[in-house]
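re the bet — no i am not wrong, look at it urself. input seq straight from the record:
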Amino acid sequence: MAAVRRILIDCDPGLDDAAAILMALGARAVLDLVALTTVAGNVGLAAVTRNASGLLALAGRTDVPLHAGCPRALVGGTLRAQHVHGEGGIGGVDLPVGVSARSEHAVDAIRRIARESGPKGLTLVPIGPLTNIACALVMAPDIADCLSEIVVMGGAARVGGNVTPVAEFNFAADPHAARIVLESGVPVVVMPLDVTRQAVVTEARIDALRTLATPVGETLAAMLAAYRGRTGRAVLHDPCTIAYLLAPDLFRGEGVAATVDTASDVSMGRLVADWNGQTGRDPTVTIMSDLDADGFYDLLVAQIRALS
C-alpha cells in the first residue's frame, strides 16, 4: 500500500481550482489534506475563501482547516480573471455554506504545518498566485527542509501565455513570488500551460461526471459546463497537480534550472527555463510537457466518485 502523503493546497477558487480540491479530497486514502489556504487571484480574497469553504462543505470535509492569506501580490497591482470564472469565481454555481476560515493567517499556517511535518514531510500544492508560499519561505527559510516538493500550476515554457504573449496567469499575477519559489532550492514540479492545455474539457467528460448522479459529481459537472460556456475551450489547469501526485506516469517532463522574469515590462512573469544548462545552476525544477489526457480524466472521475 502506498504511503499517505501530507499535502497543503494553496488556492484561489476558481473553477479549475474547484476540480483540483475535490479531486484531492476524493483521494483521501493516499493524500492527507492537512490544510487549505487561500490567496487572492482569480477573484478577490473574500470570494476565493468563501468558495474554498463551500467546496469543503460540499465534500463533507469541514474538518480540513481553512486559512485565508494574502489579498494582493508582493509588488504591483492586482490581476483578476472574473471574465473566465465569473464575478464570484465559480461560474454562478451554488455551493453550500461552509465554516469560516480560522484566525491564523495562511502564511503562518504554512510555516507551522511545515515545521510540524518534519524533514521532507510536507508537499505544497500551490494552484494560484504564489504569494503565500513565497512569503512563508522568506519569513522562515528553515521550512525548506520540511518540504519534499512543491507542485505548482503556473507558467508557459515552450508555448504562449494566456494573459500576455509569454506569461501565464498565476505567474503573471505575482511574478516576484513565483521567482522566489522557483529559486528556493526546494524541488519544484511545474505544470505549465504546455501540459495543462492538453486537459481539454469536453461534453463527454462533463457527462461522465454528471452520470455519477452524486451531489459532488453534478456540482462539478455544472461548474465545468459553465467554464466551457464562458471560454469556448476550457481546460483543467489546476487538477494536473493532483493527478501528478496520484499518477505521475500520466506526465512527462524534464528537470532544469528555472526562474521567472521580474525585470522586463515586455516579458514580466515569463517562465525562463535553462534548457541547455547555461547558468550552471542545479536543475531543481521539473517542467512537465506531456499528459495522457484520457488517463487524467479517468482519474478525476474516479476521485469524484469516491466522494459519493
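see?? The radius of gyration is 18 Å. told u. also The chain has one domain: 5-306. so pay up
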